Amino acid sequence: MPACLDFQQDFDKIQLTAGNVGTVPVWSSPVTGNSVLSLHEYPFITTETCLDKAPPTFQGYITGDKFCAGLDNRTMIHRGNSGSGLTFPSTERLLTRHYLRGIVSISPEWSVEHYATNDFVTFTKITSFEHFIKSNL
Prior knowledge:
Layout: H1 9-15, E1 21-27, E2 37-45, H2 47-53, E3 66-70, E4 85-92, E5 95-106, E6 120-125, H3 130-135
Antiparallel strand pairs: 1-2, 2-3, 3-6, 4-5, 5-6
């Protein structure tokens, strides 16, 4: 799916609100080499909720340049999917566009099968790296 970039802080705040659902393209099992690409939905969760759910040893990874999204219907992200983009839709004049808001970063736990087994995944905010992204496009 094509994705747009928008670095406006106000737009970021609109899209990153509790319960707003984003989409991530996920490979079913990049570790085993038997991969199927599918789109999974992840609702945004607040930093407060994320910190409440996170084990104490993981809370330090939830920094100002990160946000969390929950695992909807127990869909999972494999380790090999780090770097995938999380987009949120926005409709204007009957046209829906998806905007990149974050990049899959890290999850508190990974099982033996290399799945994220917790209730959320952290994403790196693209707005925190606007200068880097623009200077490398």
